[in-house]
Design brief:
This protein folds into two domains: about 80 residues, no CATH class; about 150 residues, Metalloproteases ("zincins"), catalytic domain (Zincin-like), CATH 3.30.2010.10. It is built from seven helices and eleven strands. The strands form three sheets. Strands 1-2-4-3 form a four-stranded mixed beta sheet. Helix 4 packs across helix 5 and helix 5 packs across helix 6.
Amino acid sequence: MLKQLRNLVALPAVEQRAALLDGKQVTYTLKRSSKRRSIGLHIDERGLIVSVPIRSSESWLQSVLKEKARWVVTSLDDWCQKSIPVQTSWADGETIPYLGELLSLRVVHGLFVTPAHRKGNELLVFVANNGCGPADIENAASCWYRREAELLFSERVAYYAPLLNVMPGAVKLSSAKTQWGCCTAKGIVLLNLQLIKLPLRLIDYVVVHELAHLREMNHSAKFWGAVEMVCSDYVELRNELKTISM
């Protein structure tokens, strides 16, 4: 009887709610739509938005929120960090992003200049005793980023390519302003250098996405099926990547 009465009540299309997720109180916007058949979670500058079918049950909603609680809290924290514009001054003590974390930049003066390298949570950049400017430090750090990206991206492609039963013609770095990755008609996978600053889960998603194009050079159902075959949470990762500016 209660269920029948509920069906007679017009539910609001948009509703503000709050929930305890992974030990943190999270406010979110609940949107109901007659066109939806599943529950979707999205995070952007407005916060968490939960889209549900118009007659979805409360128990279904709560089970999805519980299942995705850790992802929601982590993504909200990441968004807060990314929403604060950071201007790198390329000076000793500055922090720079690497694989979703922050490294402290340490400028080391000496007689010999060697390539920058990571030591724990620090990136050591070696400069000559006669001094150098921020541009020189930035160049040394950029060279380090490139070396790390070439090594890591090759490793991730080597891991995922056999799972998708594909083999790219080559893997190259890209400096594109609007694309995280690209797969050419000749089978060359291009991965944006800026990916090295993001969490590994997002790098892996882009790698899988581009490798899947070696099977389907489109975004058809078959393409997304190939992506899901080795990246089951690709929808959440795709949405998370959309919130990040290059």
